[in-house]
Specification:
Strand order of the largest sheet: 1-15-18-19-20
Order of helices and strands: EEEEEEEEEEEEEEEEEEEEEEE
Strand content: 15-25%
Length: about 550
């Protein structure tokens, strides 16, 4: 058979789809744009890198620290909570198919009113790949821990003049210093600046500025520090996302929480009137996820397949050639081996020969049917179907992808190949039927006719929806039968209507299997010309995904 080069018009194209597109655990936002996916994680989860994605832009913000709370009585304001660490970048390499754990840091929990002197709790870390954003530092308290805690950004000091907590280099800034003379706490540090100290008026330190990111397509401010607690005045967190410090005028208020999913610090308490909680962090990934167009290639003749440059795996269906039916009360031919699977690795740019198996010839003048030949692609081989047995020569069926049926009087049917097919049926030598066994099919064994029940159908094939509309392949051939004055014999039908029918003495000859289905030929009858049916040729079908960009995900 001549080798033909693959030609572009021999494929069909199915629906557009993003290969491996997923909705991540904890997803709060999916952006749409030309080829871009924006996935925002508000909770800890996992992200499996989709096929075709090799780099991501990222924003990783840790949980913000809580504001500090002072003891009641003469004590003034606690320090504001520091913002969670802020990390961002572009083009970070990732590996398709690899699962990445996404850890989203929680904000530190603020104190309830009347709980006494309580240092603010630090936020917890957010993690993606090799990046760890450090949780924000908690605000200080009086009496006791008058200096703010270190963190992504540091917590503010309490009013007696402690030191603001240190920020983590590259992620945030230090908290502000408390002021004893005014009773004001220092502001927590932010990603965009240090926490504030005292003012010329008796106000607490402002929270450090946050930093705006446009990774989602719209500028959003993250990681601002919480304002320090005061005896009077309004100390809102910088950029409007950090918690405001508690105050006494015009009414007593507690420190407020940082805005959700920004990693901002909570506001410090006025005395013991309650401090604000830090905001939980966030992890945001942005990447170009190539669209995949499924292309389906069907090969009915030996060809060379050129693997496209962007393709690393294929889905496949391989069916070998079916066996020919024997002659003279003969067994039906076995179906060719049936192999299917997904994700078989291939090398981009490689030239791969696809060998299509031919159907075996039916037996002529008391000869056994020939085995079909193999269908092969890459490291995969579907085995040709076994030929049907014949009288008076080789009465046993031959083994193959599916086994051939034995002739009437043949004690052994051909065996099928595990994972590819089934055994043939054993013939019935009882007069007046003299029926050959049916050839095995991919979906079931060939029928072994019993006395009084001489029908010897071929084994059924397998229906597959690969790559789209269901099609049945690899049915076994029906066994041939005799007729005598004492009663009729019945030739077996081909499996699933695609295997060849067995011949019936004096009524009809065996028929060939349907081409390009890998089915077995029918077993021949006794009367001249007494030939068995030919097996059907095999087939190979490949499905690949071709990456394209310039589309919108809706």
């Amino acid at each position: 058979m001549a080798i033909k080069r693959f030609e572009a018009q021999s494929f069909s194209t199915s629906t557009f789809r993003p290969r491996g597109f997923q909705y991540p655990v904890g997803l709060t936002f999916i952006g749409s744009g030309t080829g871009n996916v924006v996935a925002s994680f508000a909770n800890t989860g996992a992200w499996v890198c989709p096929t075709g994605v090799t780099s991501v832009d990222y924003l990783v913000v840790a949980g913000g620290g809580a504001g500090g709370q002072n003891q009641g009585g003469p004590y003034g304001g606690g320090g504001g909570g520091g913002a969670g660490g802020y990390l961002t970048g572009t083009g970070h390499p990732v590996t398709p198919g690899t699962p990445y754990t996404i850890t989203v840091g929680a904000g530190g929990t603020g104190s309830n009113p009347g709980a006494g002197a309580t240092r603010g709790a630090n936020g917890t870390n957010s993690v993606f790949s090799s990046f760890t954003a450090v949780g924000g530092g908690g605000g200080a308290t009086t009496p006791g821990n008058t200096s703010g805690c270190a963190g992504g950004s540091g917590g503010g000091a309490s009013y007696v003049g402690g030191v603001g907590g240190a920020g983590t280099p590259g992620q945030g800034n230090a908290g502000g210093t408390g002021v004893g003379s005014t009773g004001a706490g220092g502001g927590g540090g932010g990603a965009g600046g240090a926490g504030g100290a005292w003012n010329t008026t008796p106000l607490a330190g402002l929270g450090g500025a946050g930093t705006a990111s446009s990774i989602t397509g719209t500028p959003v401010v993250y990681a601002a520090g919480g304002g320090g607690g005061s005896t009077s005045g309004d100390n809102g967190g910088s950029s409007g996302v950090g918690g405001s410090g508690g105050q006494s005028s015009p009414t007593v208020t507690r420190g407020t929480d940082g805005d959700i999913f920004t990693g901002s610090g909570g506001g410090g308490a006025h005395q013991s009137n309650g401090s604000g909680s830090g905001a939980g962090g966030v992890v945001i990934l942005k990447y170009n996820q190539p669209l995949v167009i499924d292309q389906v290639y069907k090969f009915e003749a030996t060809s060379v397949f050129e693997v496209p440059d962007t393709v690393t795996e294929v889905d496949y269906l391989l069916v070998a050639g079916g066996g020919g039916g024997g002659q003279h009360w003969a067994g039906g031919g076995g179906a060719g081996g049936f192999l299917t699977g997904t994700g078989h690795p291939v090398t981009p740019g490689a030239s791969l020969t696809i060998t299509i198996g031919g159907g075996g010839n039916g037996g002529i003048t008391d000869t056994t049917g020939a085995n079909g030949t193999n269908t092969a692609f890459s490291s995969l081989t579907a085995i040709g179907g076994g030929g049907g047995g014949a009288n008076p020569a080789t009465t046993n069926g031959l083994s193959g992808g599916s086994g051939g049926g034995s002739a009437a009087g043949g004690p052994v049917a051909g065996l099928g190949t595990p994972g590819q097919g089934n055994d043939g049926g054993v013939g019935n030598p009882s007069s007046p039927f003299f029926s050959g066994g049916g050839g095995g099919g991919a979906g079931g064994a060939g029928v072994s006719p019993a006395p009084g029940a001489p029908i010897a159908n071929g084994g059924i094939g397998l229906a597959t929806s690969f790559p789209g509309t269901p099609v049945t392949y690899a049915g076994g051939g029906g066994g041939g039968a005799h007729i005598s004055p004492s009663g009729p014999g019945v030739g077996g039908y081909g499996g699933s209507g695609i295997g060849g029918n067995g011949g019936l003495f004096g009524v009809y000859d065996a028929t060939n299997a349907i081409q390009a289905t890998g089915s077995g030929g029918g077993g021949g009858q006794y009367q001249s010309p007494r030939s068995g049916g030919n097996g059907g040729s095999g087939v190979a079908i490949l499905k690949i995904g071709t990456f394209v960009s310039g589309y919108s995900i809706n």
